[in-house]
């Protein structure tokens, strides 16, 4: 997760090891959730959430995953969205060099 301000200057970067993860979608959703929590703690501005996974970004805009195995993560993401404005932004995999 990388938090940047409006002029693209990095405020901080963080990573976390996920011990039990079933698939890539769960890892993406978990990373979005953790990133949102950190952004709430370290910034008071609206946040653009960038990801190369459109399925993971769907948790920010609809209830597609609320009844799935990832429902608990979807619920936490929705709770974070009450505290701050989060704007989902789909980026191409080639633009997501930070994560790789």
Automatic annotation (TrEMBL):
GO MF terms held by the record: nucleic acid binding; RNA-DNA hybrid ribonuclease activity
Residue stretches making up the RNase H type-1 domain: 1-100
Gene3D superfamilies xrefs: Ribonuclease H-like superfamily/Ribonuclease H
Domain of life per record: Eukaryota
UniProt xrefs under InterPro entries: RNase_H-like, RNase_H-like_dom_plant, RNaseH-like_sf, RNaseH_domain, RNaseH_sf
SUPFAM superfamilies hit by this protein: Ribonuclease H-like (SSF53098)
PANTHER family in the cross-refs: OS05G0353850 PROTEIN, RNASE H TYPE-1 DOMAIN-CONTAINING PROTEIN
Record's protein name: RNase H type-1 domain-containing protein
């Amino acid at each position: 997760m990388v938090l940047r301000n409006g002029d693209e200057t990095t405020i901080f970067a963080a990573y976390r090891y996920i011990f039990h993860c079933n698939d890539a979608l769960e890892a993406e959703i978990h990373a979005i959730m953790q990133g949102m929590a950190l952004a709430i703690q370290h910034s008071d501005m609206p946040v653009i959430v960038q990801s190369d996974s459109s399925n993971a970004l769907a948790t920010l805009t609809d209830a597609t995953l609320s009844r799935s195995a990832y429902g608990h993560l979807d619920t936490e993401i929705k709770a974070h969205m009450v505290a701050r404005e989060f704007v989902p932004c789909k980026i191409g995999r080639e633009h997501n060099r930070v994560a790789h």
